[in-house]
Write a sequence for this structure.
């Protein structure tokens, strides 16, 4: 059954709202053969923005092929290269014969082969007949450029959960070779291939693209702004009207602000409210829906807090209290943070756990709006905004 409030998958078309600027920028970059990195908190809408952009480009008559891979379970370089090569090959070919021809032509001299048995049993296009070497890595990373030129159509490779490249044996080495390969191929005139590096672990992605500065000046950062309250409220209001229900827009504005424009939470919240109501939706229905939404995620929030040390919990409390200068003697004393050196370690720990990040003003920001609400109200018993 179709629902006006979709939160279990990405959305396109009439269900996609806001972020027209982001889709326009992304489309222009892809058309120009540029590569992009997008890293936002989980369920912020990265996939929806990418898919809506590609949807718009198709409608406008764009000709391109798409390869997608997820590094969610990737823990080795060989696994990454197999996924990467497979995504590129499947984007332009459909039969085992075509797969075999591409591997023989473009990966000749490497340790990658097309094994018919492995393909039949495991659906693997690429298999290894020896240990990897640098030449193997470069050959696979060049493959999308060669295939795009050969097919006569631009090739877009989407790498989801790219931060997990650092969980392989030597992520730095892979990123370094990847960076050099991209530069070499563009200098050689290959400009019909774009990579979209996605990640929902913000600080892990910042480590790759900002701290280590891999792909510097080769990859454009696309930052997703929160969907404006007005657009969010209009979207939810229309969804309720479609089922014959009415709601006070002021109440919805409060919900949109609570979730900081994050439509995944807002749609789930609206779906629960919709199931609890008939006719006019009152404030008590929304409070019950919020309570149910919090209950769904509470085990995850409790596990997050249980994973923190006493010092880290104190640091989180200092952040929620609105402090930004944590190394001052007053803050260290009040929250028992021990020392300025310990403060640096605590900030780093909370970032590695993907609980907070720091904005361009070096101010701490909690990444998950519902977690922030829960930890403020239920854990620390603080007044909620």
């Amino acid at each position: 059954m179709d629902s006006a409030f979709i939160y279990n998958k990405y959305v396109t078309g009439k269900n996609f709202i806001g972020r027209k600027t982001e889709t326009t920028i992304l489309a222009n970059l892809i058309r120009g053969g540029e590569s992009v990195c997008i890293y936002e908190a989980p369920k912020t809408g990265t996939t929806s923005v990418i898919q809506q952009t590609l949807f718009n480009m198709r409608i406008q008559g764009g000709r391109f092929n798409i390869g997608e891979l997820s590094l969610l379970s990737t823990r080795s370089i060989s696994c990454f290269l197999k996924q990467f090569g497979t995504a590129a090959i499947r984007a332009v070919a459909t039969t085992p014969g075509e797969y075999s021809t591409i591997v023989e032509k473009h990966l000749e001299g490497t340790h990658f082969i097309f094994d018919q048995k492995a393909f039949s049993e495991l659906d693997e296009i690429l298999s290894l007949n020896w240990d990897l070497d640098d030449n193997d890595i470069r050959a696979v990373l060049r493959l999308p450029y060669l295939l795009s030129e050969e097919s006569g159509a631009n090739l877009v490779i989407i790498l989801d959960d790219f931060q997990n490249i650092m969980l392989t044996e030597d992520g730095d080495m892979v990123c370094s070779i990847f960076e050099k390969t991209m530069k070499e191929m563009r200098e050689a005139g290959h400009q019909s291939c774009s990579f979209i590096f996605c990640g929902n672990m913000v600080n892990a992605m910042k480590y790759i693209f900002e701290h280590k500065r891999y792909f510097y000046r080769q990859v454009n950062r696309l930052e997703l702004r929160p969907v404006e309250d007005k657009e969010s409220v209009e979207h939810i209001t229309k969804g309720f009207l479609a089922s014959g229900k009415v709601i006070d827009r002021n109440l919805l504005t409060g919900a949109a602000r609570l979730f900081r424009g994050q439509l995944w939470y807002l749609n789930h919240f609206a779906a629960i409210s919709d199931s609890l109501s008939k006719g006019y939706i009152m404030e008590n229905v929304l409070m019950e829906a919020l309570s149910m939404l919090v209950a769904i995620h509470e085990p995850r929030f409790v596990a997050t807090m249980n994973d923190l040390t006493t010092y880290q919990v104190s640091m989180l409390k200092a952040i929620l209290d609105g402090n930004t200068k944590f190394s001052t003697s007053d803050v260290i004393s009040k929250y028992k943070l021990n020392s300025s050196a310990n403060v640096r370690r605590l900030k780093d720990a909370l970032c590695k756990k993907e609980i907070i990040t720091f904005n361009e003003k070096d101010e701490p920001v909690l990444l998950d709006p519902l977690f922030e609400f829960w930890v403020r109200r239920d854990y620390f018993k603080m007044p909620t905004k």
DSSP finds 16 helices and eleven strands in the chain. The CA atoms of residues 202 and 340 lie 25 Å apart. The mean pLDDT is 95. The two ends are 36 Å apart (CA to CA).
